[in-house]
Each structure stands twice: as structure tokens, then as C-alpha cells.
Amino acid sequence: MSANEEADTFKPEFNDQDRTILILGLRQIGERLAPWRDESEEQGFPAHITILTPFFAEAELDDAIHADLREICAGIPSFDVNLVSVERVPGFIFLALESEREPRALLAALRERWPQFVPYDGLHGEDPTPHLTVAWPDTVDRHGRIATEVKTLLPLSERTTALTLLARRDHRWTTIAEFPLAA
């Protein structure tokens, strides 16, 4: 398959219907990236670092799960996310973090509590690289243009202070709760 065919046909394959997702939302960075983020923001999905998806179905969430999330997050200090490079793989463009230590620590704590949830259902292995997806361009030319334009914005930094739980409802992502990280 040629690079052009890959860019034209790549789509994420895990099923997010009736599942929730845990992210570190990056609204300020999202504002800077808005021209390249396709329709993600319109669907209620802010610029973010995915920590764990899939998570429980929304109907399975209860007070005990929320309490565990609060406890886990209270043990993880808030931190600065520094995005320092544009990376391209077939089908999508993402920004790489200067340090993956904090998002990985948060994922490890969540996986220790809920080992049944493997990030992206294992599609990218057991330990995928934390990143911020910018776009899913539909052509190689657009892929290159977006990467070149976004690179001029780097580095991008934002302090993250909470883990956000989102659910997909009627083709839109809705925030269910935010769990503060330690100050």
C-alpha cells in the first residue's frame, strides 16, 4: 500500500460506542491547534492526551468508581505538558511530549486498579506512547502541510490539573466528571 493510500484509508479501529474515556484536557493548546483539528472540538472532544480508553460503559459507572478515580488522581501531582515535536505516522499527525513520565504514572495507577482495561483495546500495544493527536488528514499532501504548519507553533505548554471522564452520547463527547490532580 502506498503512503497516499495509507493516508486516504487509515481510520482508528477500536469501538468507542457505549464506552467512556479518561483524558487530560488541554484547552489552551486546543485553541492554538483549532485550525487543524478537523471536527473534533465540534463533537465535544477537546485537545487532549488520552490516558485510558476504553473505560467502563457509562451505565456501569457508580459512586465507587468515581471515589477510586478521585483517590488515584489525588495521589498524582498536577504537571506541565510540554509538546515539543510533530510526529507523523500513516494516517495521523500527533504532538510528542517532552516527558511521558507523568501520563504514564497516571495510566499505571489506573491499570493497577482496573487491569481489565488495556489502552485502545490493545490496538497499539499494552503501553502506547502518550501524545496529542492533531488531525487525521485524508491525503498525504494535507498530511505534510498540517505537519509543517503546526511545527511553527512549537513548543506548546499547558499545566494539567485534572483527569476528565467523557462519554459518547449521540455522536458527541460529553464530560461526565473531572477528578483533580494533587496541587
Describe the structure.
There is one protein chain. By secondary structure, this protein is α+β, with helices and mostly antiparallel strands. It has a single domain, classed as Cyclic Phosphodiesterase, Chain: A. Helices cover 28% and strands 30% of the residues. It has five helices and eight strands; from the N terminus they run αβαβαββαβαβββ. The protein has helices at 3-9, 27-33, 63-74, 101-113, 140-151, and strands at 20-25, 48-52, 79-89, 92-97, 131-135, 156-160, 162-169, 172-180. The strands form two sheets. A four-stranded antiparallel beta sheet has the order 2-1-7-8. The protein has a four-stranded antiparallel beta sheet with strand order 5-4-3-6. Helix 3 runs antiparallel to helix 4 (101-113). The radius of gyration is 16 Å and the shape is globular. 26% of the residues are buried.
Give a quick set of tags describing it.
single chain, 183 residues, alpha+beta, Cyclic Phosphodiesterase, Chain: A, four-stranded antiparallel β-sheet, 5 helices, globular
Instruction: Based on the coordinates given, report the CATH architecture.
Output: Alpha-Beta Complex
Helix content: 25-40%
CATH topology group: Cyclic Phosphodiesterase, Chain: A
Question: What is the CATH class designation?
Answer: Alpha Beta
In the predicted model, the low-confidence regions spanning at least 5 consecutive residues are 1-15
Mean pLDDT: 85
Order of helices and strands: HEHEHEEHEHEEE
Number of helices: 5
Distance between the amino and carboxyl termini:
48 Å
Instruction: Give the percentage of residues in beta strands.
Output: 25-35%
Q: What is the gyration radius calculated from CA atoms?
A: 16 Å
